[in-house]
């Protein structure tokens, strides 16, 4: 990658330095169980911060992920999703809920059936400078930053301030929410991308070959799927020979080598920005067992996953 920026600064560092977020906070929502809402896909990236209680998030028909107070989830590509107090709770479209229960002048929504409470800060965000394709390609469809991770502890003073602001209806509170969300999101994205971008060579998503561009998009949406060269070639509508040749021409490497690099880059990001254990991250990366994942990770990054995570946390502490 071409060196840019201050002397001695590599391209990745320079790109990360430009990662800054502008947030639009839609509303502060107080739900009471049972409740659930759905949001359709849209180009706008989305975020949710659980300030009190608990919830479940399901993206694109996947199994629900549990969220609790202090958790923050990001949907960088604006996928459709469902959030509810329990996976089996009835779900309504969010726009229908807002039509019946409009937000008040302070930007607050109250909805539910009177049971246990959950408070969510919901909104959207955009990057002030678009990410290079090779960095955007390693972002997952959903990233959950849970309350136990070292990154969350590093941002704990900001989270405390955010919770304090939500207790009152002071003038300008929505602007404060947005500014605090900017800091949260910028640091989360930088941390994830700095770790995930440590393996060079991922090709940009854009391609003059539409067939291969479609497969790159498919791989990046589901890197954990049990892909083979044959299944990818069939998805592209090509013979194995033609697919291999065209894929290598676009990316500079064979399909399975590219897939492995993407999986391990995502895994590095998860190690830095979440507290998921190594076994869970191995599954997210498409590995059947922790041992084979750890071996592949060490081969790509020069140290085992646990050591890599410790180094990322230590670097954040030293750079505070």
Overall description:
This protein is of the alpha+beta class and 320 residues long. 44% of the residues lie in helices and 20% in strands. The protein contains 13 helices and eleven strands. The strands form two sheets. Strands 9-1-10-3-6-11 form a six-stranded mixed beta sheet, covered by helices on one side. Helix 6 crosses helix 10 (255-273). The radius of gyration is 21 Å and the shape is globular. The two termini are 28 Å apart.
Helix percent band: 40-55%
Radius of gyration over alpha carbons? 21 Å
Low-confidence stretches: 1-9
Strand count: 11
At a glance:
The chain has helices at residues 11-17, 94-100, 133-136, 150-154, 156-166, 173-196, 210-221, 229-236, 240-251, 255-273, 278-284, 290-301, 305-318; strands spanning 21-32, 36-39, 45-52, 54-59, 65-68, 72-75, 81-84, 92-93, 108-112, 117-127, 143-145. With 320 residues, it is α+β, with helices and mostly antiparallel strands. The longest helix is centred in the middle third of the chain and has 24 residues, at 173-196.
List the helices and strands and how they pair.
Blueprint (H helix, E strand, L loop, with lengths): L10 H7 L3 E12 L3 E4 L5 E8 L1 E6 L5 E4 L3 E4 L5 E4 L7 E2 H7 L7 E5 L4 E11 L5 H4 L6 E3 L4 H5 L1 H11 L6 H24 L13 H12 L7 H8 L3 H12 L3 H19 L4 H7 L5 H12 L3 H14 L2
Parallel strand pairs: 1-9, 2-8
Antiparallel strand pairs: 1-10, 2-7, 3-6, 3-10, 4-5, 4-7, 6-11
Helix pairs in contact: 5-6, 6-10, 8-9, 10-11, 10-12
Jot down its keywords:
alpha+beta, five-stranded mixed beta sheet, 20% strand, globular, disordered N terminus
């Amino acid at each position: 990658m071409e060196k840019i920026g201050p002397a001695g600064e590599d391209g990745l560092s320079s790109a990360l330095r430009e990662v800054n977020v502008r947030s639009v906070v839609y509303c502060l929502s107080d739900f009471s169980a049972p409740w659930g809402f759905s949001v359709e896909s849209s180009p706008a990236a989305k975020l949710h911060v659980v300030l009190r209680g608990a919830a479940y998030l399901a993206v694109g028909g996947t199994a629900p992920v549990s969220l609790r107070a202090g958790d923050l989830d990001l949907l960088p590509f604006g996928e459709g999703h469902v959030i509810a107090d329990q996976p089996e709770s009835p779900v309504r479209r969010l726009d229908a809920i807002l039509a019946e229960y409009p937000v008040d002048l302070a930007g607050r929504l109250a909805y539910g059936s009177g049971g246990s409470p959950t408070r969510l800060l919901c909104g959207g965000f955009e990057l002030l400078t678009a990410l290079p394709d090779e960095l955007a390609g390693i972002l997952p469809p959903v990233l959950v930053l849970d309350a136990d991770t070292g990154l969350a502890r590093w941002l704990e003073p900001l989270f405390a301030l955010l919770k304090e602001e939500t207790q009152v209806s002071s003038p300008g509170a929505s602007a404060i929410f947005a500014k605090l969300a900017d800091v949260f999101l910028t640091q989360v994205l930088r941390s994830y991308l700095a770790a995930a971008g440590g393996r060079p060579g991922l090709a940009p998503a854009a391609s003059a070959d539409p067939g291969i561009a479609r497969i790159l998009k498919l791989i990046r949406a589901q890197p954990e799927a049990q892909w083979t060269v044959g299944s990818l070639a069939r998805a592209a509508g090509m013979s194995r020979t033609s697919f291999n040749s065209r894929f290598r021409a676009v990316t500079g490497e064979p399909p399975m080598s590219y897939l492995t690099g993407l999986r391990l880059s995502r895994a590095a990001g998860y190690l830095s920005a979440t507290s998921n254990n190594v076994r869970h991250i191995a599954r997210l990366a498409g590995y059947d067992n922790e041992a084979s994942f750890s071996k592949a990770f060490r081969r790509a990054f020069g140290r085992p996953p646990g050591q890599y995570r410790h180094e990322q946390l230590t670097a954040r502490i030293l750079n505070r």
